[in-house]
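Regression check, dicarbonimidic diamide case 229:
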Amino acid sequence: MPVLTIHAQPAPISLDPARLALVIIDMQRDFLEAGGFGEALGNDVSQLRRIVPACAALLSHLRAAGIPIIHTREGHRPDLSDAPRAKVERGAPSLRIGDDGPMGRILIRGEAGHDIVAELAPLSGEPLVDKPGKGAFYQTDLDLMLRNGGIDTLLVCGVTTEVCVHTTIREANDRGYRCIAVADCCASYFPEFHEVGLKMISAQGGIFGWVAESGAIFSALDEAGALSR
Ligand code: C5J
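Current build output:
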């Protein structure tokens, strides 16, 4: 496939699709469904659920184009030994990390709520990175996997825009990866944080990276596919 050029903010970005991967952040039941961590913190989970169809379309296009997909999940060991006390103690006292909820223990690996939502479940062979923090690089082997795979540019989507998506993009940017946030495949419980979060990425000439709509990615992939035929 030839070089792709994606229409993005603050400027179009050209990239080698052989060095491109998608990191889809934390599309877990604990954040998207009633009774999970997100709702326990007082949030309206429908704000996040609305991007599921767009994320499903993105996964299907990228799978068809052979672009690697890496899924992440935020969560902790059952004994909470990897959960800083400062994190556990914050939030709603009624339902904290490790407490029993309707989908099992909140934000604990192996519990039903920790799973990716069914519509976006990883296919066999797609890596799943379990992370104890907000950023996908913190205490994980993500950087090693990307470098071994020759990846230099990341599409990043998922939830929430201003928390785990932003932290991951900042971490990736500092490690030398070019990041493109996929705007309509990211969401926040706070729509205004989503909007500002995206602006913060592309402001100042792309201080953290680029922002593109999924439609622009599909057009670029389709065009490159047509050119390679
Ligand atoms: C949060 C996340 N918001 N995945 N996690 O706690 O953004």
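Comparison notes: DSSP finds nine helices and ten strands in the chain. Residues 191-206 form the longest helix (16 residues). No diff flagged against the previous build.
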